[in-house]
Amino acid sequence: MIGLGENVDVHVRELPVSYLKTQKIIGELWYTLNPKQFAVHLGLARGSSVVILEQTGKNTGYRDRDVCGYCPETRCCVEGGAQKLESVINMRAVSKHFRQAGMNVVYSRDA
């Protein structure tokens, strides 16, 4: 639908909303699947009626507790990680394709 071609493997995993567990699982998935071009991580906000495609991921400012009741004291998701990660994928263009297909998708630069 968005021009990626036929040789695309899609792996879907539902992850717990847990800072520590998710970080471990993502690391294992990257090691096991070894994506050749890219990976897309999707998150859903409770009560949201739209899919938000983020262009930029942030590493700081976390204040909410996860499902285990944990929140990093430093408010940093990945200690020592980059402050921001910019997707190499043009999420504005991707969101446009999904909207044209009738899906409720929003583009954002502020995760």
From TrEMBL:
GO biological process terms, semicolon-separated: proteolysis
Keywords, alphabetical: Hydrolase, Protease, Thiol protease
Keyword flag Nucleotide-binding: no
Single Gene Ontology MF annotation: cysteine-type peptidase activity
Family, similarity comment: Belongs to the peptidase C15 family.
Name under which the protein is recorded: Pyroglutamyl-peptidase I like
Species: Haplochromis burtoni (Burton's mouthbrooder)
Higher taxonomy: Eukaryota, Metazoa, Chordata, Craniata, Vertebrata
